[in-house]
Design a protein that fits this description.
Order of helices and strands: HEHEHEHEHEHEHEHEHE
Mean pLDDT: 96
Structural class: alpha/beta
Helix content: 25-40%
Strand content: 5-15%
């Protein structure tokens, strides 16, 4: 399925009656479709967000999207994006919210994302990121929201985030391999207000440390090793 020609025409005309975020999720779009969309958006300053989740745009499509300098929000979950696409979008200087969940990211390219000083909200859930990849978040100074659910992060990654990162407010680490050591380190983070640690290996010691944190407003420890 390609993007409707009437929609492309309205985008090219900078039609202000269009939503500011366009939804094209689950439409079987490929890189050729994205090229046409990017061409239509070149002179459009009304559309600032794109939802392209669960298509087939791949690295080539992301490279096209990375050329846009008016986007603020881009969702490209489930699009077979790997290193080349990540490196391209990491160089974009307008996107502040980026969803790269459920793609093919293994960690090597994470450094490029953490070096981007515009991104504030980043979703990397459902990839293959290890604690080594997480280490590059230590010195990032702009991200306030980070989703790393369903990756391969253990206590070392949690320790990096808890002891070295200073800017995150929201952190999601559901379904990783974090135990008490990681939880105790996360409890030391100076600004976290939301921490989701469901489906990990945290027990009483980690829970007790988190209970003494004075910034957390939302804490999810469901499906850990808690006892009554």
């Amino acid at each position: 399925m390609s993007i409707d020609s009437d929609i492309l025409k309205r985008i090219r005309a900078n039609d202000s009656s269009l939503p500011t975020t366009l939804d094209f999720h689950d439409q079987n779009l490929n890189a050729t479709d994205i090229k046409k969309l990017v061409e239509a958006l070149q002179n459009n300053d009304h559309v600032t967000g794109l939802d392209l989740n669960n298509n087939k745009i791949g690295n080539e499509g992301v490279i096209f999207l990375a050329q846009l300098n008016t986007l603020k929000s881009l969702s490209i979950s489930g699009n077979h994006v790997g290193e080349a696409g990540v490196l391209a979008v990491a160089n974009n200087k307008s996107i502040t919210s980026l969803d790269l969940s459920y793609n093919e990211i293994n960690g090597k390219e994470i450094a490029a994302l953490t070096a981007n000083l515009v991104l504030m909200h980043l979703n990397l859930a459902g990839n293959k990121i290890t604690s080594r990849g997480v280490s590059t978040f230590a010195d990032n100074i702009t991200l306030t929201s980070l989703n790393l659910a369903e990756n391969q992060i253990d206590d070392e990654g949690a320790i990096t985030l808890g002891e070295k990162n200073k800017t995150l407010r929201s952190l999601i680490l559901t379904r990783n391999q974090i135990s008490n050591r990681g939880a105790i380190a996360l409890a030391q983070h100076p600004k976290l207000t939301r921490l989701i640690l469901a489906y990990n290996k945290v027990s009483s010691d980690g829970t007790e440390a988190l209970a003494f944190n004075n910034t957390l407003m939302i804490l999810d420890l469901s499906y850990n090793k808690l006892t009554a």
